[in-house]
Amino acid sequence: MNFGDILDAWEKEQKSAEKKGAKSTGQEWRNKKTEPDSVRKDAAGSANVKDSEAHPERKVQQNKAHVDPMTEWIRRYGVIDKDAAAEKAAEKELHKDRAWLLDMPYEAQIDLHGLTAEEATVRLGQFVSECYKRGIRKILIIHGKGNHSEDAPVLSGMVRSFVERDYRLGESGHPDKKDGGKGATWVIVREKTVLD
To answer: Quick check: pTM over 0.85?
Structure first.
């Protein structure tokens, strides 16, 4: 098809539009671009139904095509709060730092005063299990100085041997006088492992 054929076809369209009663200004293409997509008028001025309204599946495809890729990615994968993740990582590193563990306050404590060695062993085992399960890192065990014992202090020796044998317990020592001095023992509880 050459240019002359195209020009002839255009003139025929113009003449047929004039016969229908609409006067062509040659500006129909502008009106098509500026009118809303939902209603378009042909050369005669009658409203046409939008193609996507006649075919709903095409409308769904058009909506999918117009979704911003970044929005789609966020919907699919979510957003990670990098600041919260960094704070959590920094706190985990602090937990591993020995000096920080030694200076941290006691998160839980148990008082074994007045118990026999067997009763104290059972109660201490339950206490350590609960602390280990809950992720508590530093505990205080109050056992007394043994002033009321006839021979050597009973509970302080039992606590020392319990701490040395239990795999969940780490470093230990005696606190300041205000927290019990030689009558108490602080213990660092190890972090829970994947196998536990």
So the answer is: no
